[in-house]
Amino acid sequence: MTRTPLLPIVASVPELFRLMAEQCQLTERMAVLLEHYLQCGDLALVETIQRLEQEGARLRQRNVEWLKGEPALVLDRGAMLQACFFAEALQGSLVGIVLDMDGMGVRGDWSILEMTVQLRHAVERLQAGHERLRHAPAEVGSEIVAIFTARKAMERSYRLALARLLVGERELLQTPNAESLQRILHLFRHREIYRRIRDAGIEIANCGRVLQDIALQFA
Questions:
Q1: Counting CB atoms within 10 angstroms of each CB, which of 42, 59, 86, 170 has the fewest?
Q2: What pLDDT digit, counting tens, does each position of 147-161 carry?
Q3: Which domains does the chain have, with CATH numbers?
Q4: Which of 141, 24, 8 is nearest to 80 (CA)?
């Protein structure tokens, strides 16, 4: 027996996916602006990213209210709610990266930029996956694979960045002076930014997993 596709016969589903794609699109804008900030250091971008986070909270609330007001929704409501909150958590991670870099006076080095480019790529694939949900849910799998591939690349870059950062750490501790103390501060500040970006990678993986859960409902 041929299974009737779910998407065309449930009018509320495309509208829900449109709302979720809007929330994800805003996350993509934030990731792009983060990358620009690393390249130019323009403080105006910090304020812009913060404003986008506030807009993201509004979109998350709108989407949650929409889900609560749609009792006839046939899809897993829990997965949809997770998608909304995971997207907001990812936006919070992006803002945290910018604020910490600005607050600690950290400039983007090669490792930070590399991980941020990988993160931005993963967010772009997440956005593409949400767009596919609206039009071709059976084709979301390729985007999910790309998200997890970028996440693994971020993890590798993170560990290599730590290894490079910690070269000569023992010598710094054995010869305490003003210069070595400045170097230690540099080390801790950059390690914190690396960790922040890695945390954003964990958030994007969460988003990818819930996207996969939603797509599987069309299998």
A1: 170
A2: 999 999 999 999 999
A3: 10-216 (1.20.58.220)
A4: 24
